[in-house]
Design brief:
Layout lengths: L2 H37 L4 H27 L4
Helix pairs in contact: 1-2
Length: about 70
């Protein structure tokens, strides 16, 4: 592999690592939402705690979509 090929691969690897981080964060936040809802059943606190997490999950999904389009995953 010559240096120009290596230079073009590095950004792709970096972007793919970012994508993997987003997937991991999304899964972790979804798990947190599940745990909160399980521990605060029938409580208004549940939705108050969950709402910002759901907003972050939504942002992550948007960020992931950009990578999925770029890597032709969808």
């Amino acid at each position: 592999m010559n240096s120009s090929e290596n230079n073009s691969i590095e950004p792709a690897v970096f972007e793919f690592n970012n994508y993997k981080s987003l997937v991991s964060a999304e899964l972790e936040l979804i798990q947190r939402v599940f745990e909160i809802r399980q521990n605060f059943t029938n409580s208004s606190d549940s939705e108050r705690l969950v709402e910002p997490i759901l907003q972050r999950i939504s942002k992550i999904k948007s960020e992931k979509l950009i990578f999925e389009q770029e890597f032709n995953l969808i």
